[in-house]
Design brief:
The chain is mostly helical. It is 71% helix and 0% strand. It has helices at 2-8, 16-28, 32-44, 52-63, 68-80, 88-100, 104-116, 124-135, 140-156, 159-166. Helix 7 (104-116) packs parallel to helix 9 (140-156). The longest helix is centred in the last third of the chain and has 17 residues, at 140-156. The chain is elongated and about 60 Å long.
Length: 171
């Protein structure tokens, strides 16, 4: 709460360094939301020097507690090779967990990973399924991205794959 006051400048001057210090205090107590937030601060260099290795470490602490936004963030770090080597299998695993916990962006990203064969076997039917799940989300940006991706995927799918996907069959 104090970190948010400094970050937003509510009744005090905006002070991102102070916000980062308060966020780190909360993160060190094991608060997964604060750990995820601190990961983002290190990733973006807001109030702290950018440090992708530390960002990945803080995301991991929160993700290990089942904090879905951090699972998605950690998946992004593994996919991009930010703060360590690229690891598509781990990226897929963390994003799958986040998707299973309802994170719309993770559902879209799982679809993309199935479509491209990153971290999982290339599978257009599974990609279709996950894009549909992302479209069903309440997040308008993710919904729009998934609609575009699904339209492009459908144009490239073989008729039996498209028929299976539209029937909801996953092989």
């Amino acid at each position: 709460a104090i970190a948010r006051i400094y970050r937003r400048g509510q009744g005090v001057d905006k002070d991102f360094a102070a916000a980062a210090r308060w966020t780190e205090s909360a993160a060190k107590t094991g608060d997964p939301h604060a750990q995820d937030e601190l990961g983002a601060l290190y990733r973006l260099g807001v109030g702290v020097e950018p440090d992708l290795t530390r960002a990945r470490q803080w995301y991991r602490k929160a993700a290990d507690q089942g904090y879905a936004p951090a699972e998605n963030d950690l998946g992004m770090m593994y996919r991009m090779g930010a703060g360590g080597p690229v690891d598509y299998e781990r990226a897929f695993g963390w994003r799958y967990r986040a998707a299973d916990h309802g994170i719309a962006e993770a559902k879209f990203n799982i679809g993309a990973m199935y479509e491209l064969g990153l971290g999982a076997a290339k599978d257009p039917v599974q990609a279709y399924r996950w894009y549909q799940a992302a479209i069903a989300s309440a997040d308008p940006t993710t919904r729009a991205n998934a609609n575009r991706a699904l339209a492009l995927l459908k144009a490239r799918m073989k008729p039996p794959e498209l028929a299976a996907a539209e029937r909801g069959l996953v092989h």
